[in-house]
Amino acid sequence: PGVIKEGSIINNPTSLMDILPTLAHIAGLDTSHLKLDGQSLIPLLQEDESVRESRPLFHFCQSEIFAMRMYQGNSTYKLVRKSHPLDRKGHCNQCSCYGSGVISHNPPLLFNLDEDPIEMAPLETSANEYKDYISLMTNQLNAFQEEFDKTKMAAQFSNYAVLPRPWLQPMLNV
């Protein structure tokens, strides 16, 4: 109260990874020595426009990158490389991360989430908007994939075990 306006909305893509840095920020803790994937949401909640960066957020299915989203220009875009077949209600009945249950999109689908938040109409590959953002996002995705492949860890979730396996996560000196 008094720091963040009531009813504040963040339009940038955010992630659960942002919770720890946000709580540390509120508590006044310095996390600059930690290699955290998330970032504090406080500057965004305080409407500090200087922090509106185009950081990519990656969507995984086990250890496979299926999609990414990124704030570019004045919109949030989502690039989809792979997806699952969905039923009429938009649910995935047999969600597998590998094999015949996965739909590969080549070229990737690209959605402007501000104009199409439920991802019903991908941008046409011939559209200027698609051409403007697909190479930028693909380059970001490929750079992350290259780095990720160097340190690829086993998936924390699998088809046979729905409980997280925290021992597979790196330890941080906190």
Portion in strands: 15-25%
Largest sheet: 4 strands, antiparallel
H and E string: HHEEEEH
Which residue ranges are poorly predicted, with pLDDT under 50 across at least 5 consecutive positions? Answer: none
Task: Explain what you see.
The chain has helices at residues 19-27, 42-45, 128-150; strands spanning 57-61, 64-72, 75-83, 103-112. It is 21% helix and 19% strand. The chain is globular. A hairpin with a 2-residue loop joins strand 1 and strand 2 (64-72). With 174 residues, the protein is α+β, with helices and mostly antiparallel strands.
Describe this structure in a few short sentences.
With 174 residues, the chain is an alpha+beta fold. It has helices spanning 19-27, 42-45, 128-150; strands at 57-61, 64-72, 75-83, 103-112. A four-stranded antiparallel beta sheet has the order 1-2-3-4, covered by helices on one side.
Output the keywords:
about 170 residues, alpha+beta, 3 helices
Topology:
Blueprint: H1 19-27, H2 42-45, E1 57-61, E2 64-72, E3 75-83, E4 103-112, H3 128-150
Antiparallel strand pairs: 1-2, 2-3, 3-4
